[in-house]
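tokens incoming
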């Protein structure tokens, strides 16, 4: 398909919009018109003394349509008005020609509730919601969901202070690799991979010590700790203990509100590891079924049964864990609406404190896309799955407290964290809403330094792969010195 972008600067926005309707199409952008027999979307602008005439022409599967609109020179932001008018025209025409009405409308960003909070802060809640629905074309159901999340996020975000920070610990190892995974995570099926954990853990502890020093020198206050990856509980109990002890020894935990470790794969959960976590004050863990359908689990490369999830969950409860999250994914290959509904109902019966419902995203680096092509659910099926979760979870007493969207998610749908009152994962909100600095350690981790009182963020990237992290640790340690420089530039 060709996207003609004639005489305007909105090629990024128009391409993103086209991708909502044609997620798998190859889109060739041309800045000059040429005759073609291919499907095309033509977007153009003619600027004059009184304003801009905007035009969209479509030729898709033999259906042709064209429409125009005019934007008069205003007092406000003329470029923004032109961008929204052109996008609105294109969106409405694509809906009419394809028969698809994307529930998130023209929104392409990852944080709908953040956008809504910002609109609400500038325009007021009612006008912000109107803009969300009327200008951005967000469906009333999704706008209401975003508003619920925005209100819940307000309460969590209010806990963050200007000197607050959170610590993220990356453990990029898993027992096996899931077919949809696009993270830098190494399955430990080989001896070499298992040995690399032995080299990784002491260096991670060294980076924790460096990071704790920077936090202390700069007067930062620790709010939350989150271990992700990967599957942190891929580490053995003594390895976990070494990292946990380093954190307790180096950081001041007296202000810590929440300590999460993802124990995502039930085949990594043992009583010994749970006891080590509990002894180190870890209060929140994740045990992630993704689905309770054994054949779907096998299809996505997970070497465990649904029963093992239930067993791991019961074990965690018996070892005293009172705050457990479980993740589900809508749209997994071979999953059906009925089976997904059963997964949601089983998760509700298990009664974790939070349930996070993701929509499958088809990432280019995942095996699902590279080896198998897209075998995932179609957009209509995944929409019905997500709609079911969005109605069953509130009825079971869960409310939505955080949300994000990924590019290439099926049906352009969302990921939502649901929880019972008081079980919001603070880290998820702090990180997603960029409330404060996140100091991150480990391979693939990204430190985000947030200037106090300003909407300014700088990043320090760690090496992506464990072997690079191990071999080039000295360079990484040098990069971390920038934390001090940052807080000299932006003092607390
Ligand atoms: S458990 Fe998560 S990080 Fe590990 S392979 Fe599966 S999707 Fe990737």
């Amino acid at each position: 398909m060709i996207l003609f972008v004639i005489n305007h600067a909105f090629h990024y926005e128009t391409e993103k919009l086209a991708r909502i309707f044609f997620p798998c199409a190859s889109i060739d952008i041309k800045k000059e018109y040429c005759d073609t027999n291919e499907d095309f979307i033509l977007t153009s602008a003619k600027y004059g003394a009184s304003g801009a005439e905007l035009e969209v022409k479509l030729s898709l599967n033999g259906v042709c349509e064209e429409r125009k609109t005019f934007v008069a020179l205003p007092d406000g932001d003329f470029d923004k008005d032109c961008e929204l008018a052109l996008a609105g025209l294109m969106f409405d025409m694509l809906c009419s020609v394809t028969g698809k009405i994307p529930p998130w409308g023209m929104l392409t960003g990852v944080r709908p509730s953040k956008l809504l909070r910002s609109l609400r802060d500038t325009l007021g809640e009612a006008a912000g919601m109107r803009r969300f629905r009327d200008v951005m074309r967000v469906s009333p159901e999704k706008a209401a969901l975003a508003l619920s999340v925005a209100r819940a996020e307000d309460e969590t975000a209010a806990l963050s202070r200007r000197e607050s920070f959170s610590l993220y610990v990356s453990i990029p190892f898993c027992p096996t690799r899931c077919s949809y995974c696009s993270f830098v995570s190494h399955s430990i099926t080989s001896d070499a991979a298992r040995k690399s954990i032995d080299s990784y853990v002491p260096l991670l502890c060294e980076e924790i010590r460096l990071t704790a020093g920077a936090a202390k020198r700069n007067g930062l206050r620790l709010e939350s700790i989150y271990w992700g990856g990967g599957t942190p509980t891929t580490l053995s109990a003594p390895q976990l203990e070494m990292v946990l002890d380093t954190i307790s020894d180096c950081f001041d935990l007296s202000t810590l509100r929440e300590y999460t470790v993802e124990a995502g794969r039930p085949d990594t959960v043992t009583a010994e590891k749970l006891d080590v976590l509990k002894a180190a004050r870890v209060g929140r863990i994740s045990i992630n079924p993704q689905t309770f359908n054994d054949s779907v689990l096998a299809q996505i490369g997970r070497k465990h049964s649904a029963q093992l999830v239930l067993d791991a969950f019961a074990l965690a409860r018996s070892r005293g864990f009172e705050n457990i999250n479980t993740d589900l994914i809508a749209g997994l290959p071979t999953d059906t609406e009925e089976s997904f509904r059963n997964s949601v109902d089983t998760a509700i019966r298990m009664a974790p404190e939070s349930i996070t419902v993701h929509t499958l995203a088809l990432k280019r680096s995942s095996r699902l896309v590279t080896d198998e092509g897209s075998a995932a659910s179609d957009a209509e099926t995944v929409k019905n799955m997500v709609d079911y979760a969005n109605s069953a979870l509130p009825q079971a007493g869960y409310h939505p407290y955080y949300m994000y969207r990924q590019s290439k998610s099926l049906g352009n749908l969302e990921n939502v964290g649901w929880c019972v009152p008081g079980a919001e994962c603070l880290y998820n909100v702090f990180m997603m809403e960029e409330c404060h600095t996140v100091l991150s350690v480990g391979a693939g981790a990204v430190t985000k330094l947030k200037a106090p009182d300003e909407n300014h963020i700088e990043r320090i990237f760690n090496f992506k792969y464990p072997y690079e992290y191990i071999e080039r640790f000295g360079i990484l340690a040098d990069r971390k010195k920038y934390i001090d420089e940052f807080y000299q530039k932006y003092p607390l």
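note: The chain has a mean pLDDT of 92.
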